[in-house]
């Protein structure tokens, strides 16, 4: 068996019943279906999401054309999107709402979410006609939503709202995906230091990843509406089963509710059951930073 076949086979085993698995890390995108395709970039990848037949990748450092768009049919680059007055940093994240055809990007420095309306994007032909007005067109497609906190990780809840993970104070903020208004805030238990990302399960509970290189606990925790931990996986940083080292991002299979964890400094993705029991690893990755589970296709990126 060739090295390429071995890599594809190992990804299939971790994916269990899925027909394809895609993993984003800081340098490239690996696609495994009939083979492995790598999309390389000179930038760090801060966020990744899918809307219809397009893959959106948030790049850093960039102060314009921050989002690169690829076709998911042939994985060729289509275009860039410019988000005016947005300078993502290494804590930024991106997610999307397929129903509204919008992208959402976190802005820690300005305590806000940048919303980019894809449906208002004009065709390339029209853009060429009005090339001189490109900045105004981009501005009309974007808006800002203020966040009562310092936003980092983003995800969409089963009900379709935007879930924002905030630092200092450490809390979860749920925003209406229609208006950006705050639906609720959940203060996290005091030992959940440096929360990185969160997702909501169909049970209504939340899963939060937390821990950076200089913090004590590196865990994935299930928390309730009161922000209290009901169960956890991890503890002191390490590489053994039951340990994590900078768990920075999460993705959830909507059917099984299995949880994928980007275990960054261990260079792997950890698969956990809905009750946070260890299932298996995807190893040998290059500092995986972002994961995304596409709800329509059951593809993990």
Question: How does this model look, in words?
Answer:
Helix content is 9%, strand content 45%. It is mainly beta and 301 residues long. It has a domain at 41-163: 7 Propeller (Methylamine Dehydrogenase, Chain H), CATH 2.130.10.10. The strands form 7 sheets. Strands 4-5-6-7 form a 4-stranded antiparallel sheet, with no helix packed on it. It has a 4-stranded antiparallel sheet with strand order 8-9-10-11. Strands 12-13-14-15 form a 4-stranded antiparallel sheet, with no helix packed on it. The radius of gyration is 19 Å and the shape is globular. The protein starts with a helix and ends with a strand. 39% of the residues are buried.
Can you count the beta strands?
25
Could you name the CATH homologous superfamily of the domain at 41-163? YVTN repeat-like/Quinoprotein amine dehydrogenase
- Rg value: 19 Å
Distance between the termini: 25 Å
- Counted by DSSP, the helix tally is 3
Secondary-structure-based class equals mainly beta
CATH architecture of the domain at 41-163: 7 Propeller
Give the overall shape, derived from the CA principal axes.
Answer: globular
Mean pLDDT: 81
Along the chain, the helix and strand elements come as HEEEEEEEEEEHHEEEEEEEEEEEEEEE
Poorly predicted residue ranges: 1-36, 124-137
Identify the strand order in the major beta sheet. Answer: 4-5-6-7
What is the CATH third-level topology name of the domain at 41-163? Answer: Methylamine Dehydrogenase, Chain H
Proportion in helices: under 10%
CATH hierarchy class name of the domain at 41-163? Mainly Beta
How many strands, which pairing sense, and closed or not: the largest β-sheet? 4 strands, antiparallel
Report the β-strand fraction as a percent range: 35-45%
């Amino acid at each position: 068996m060739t090295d390429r076949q071995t890599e594809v086979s190992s990804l299939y085993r971790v994916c269990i019943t899925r027909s394809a698995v895609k993993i984003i890390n800081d340098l490239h995108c690996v696609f495994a279906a009939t083979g492995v395709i790598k999309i390389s970039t000179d930038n760090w990848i801060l966020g990744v999401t899918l809307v219809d037949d397009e893959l959106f990748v948030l790049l850093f450092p960039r102060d314009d054309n921050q989002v690169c768009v690829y076709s998911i049919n042939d994985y060729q680059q289509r275009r860039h999107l410019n988000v005016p007055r947005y300078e993502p940093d290494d804590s930024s994240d991106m997610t999307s709402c397929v129903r509204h055809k919008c992208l959402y990007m976190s802005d820690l420095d300005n305590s806000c979410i940048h919303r980019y309306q894809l449906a208002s994007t004009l065709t390339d032909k029209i853009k060429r006609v009005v090339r001189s007005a490109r900045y105004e067109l981009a501005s009309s497609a974007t808006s800002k939503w203020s966040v009562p906190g310092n936003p980092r990780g983003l995800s969409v809840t089963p009900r379709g709202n935007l879930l924002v993970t905030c630092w200092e104070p450490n809390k979860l903020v749920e925003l209406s995906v229609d208006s950006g208004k705050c639906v609720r805030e959940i203060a996290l238990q005091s030992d959940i230091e440096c929360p990185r990302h969160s997702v909501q399960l169909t049970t209504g509970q939340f899963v939060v990843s937390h821990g950076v290189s200089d913090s004590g606990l590196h865990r994935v925790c299930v928390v309730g509406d009161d922000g209290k931990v009901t169960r956890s996986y991890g503890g002191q940083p390490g590489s053994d089963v039951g340990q994590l080292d900078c768990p920075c991002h999460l993705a959830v299979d909507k059917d099984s509710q299995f949880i994928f964890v980007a275990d960054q400094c261990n260079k792997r993705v950890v698969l956990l059951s809905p009750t946070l029991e260890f299932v298996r690893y995807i190893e040998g990755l290059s500092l995986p930073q972002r994961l995304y589970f596409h709800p329509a296709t059951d593809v993990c990126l």
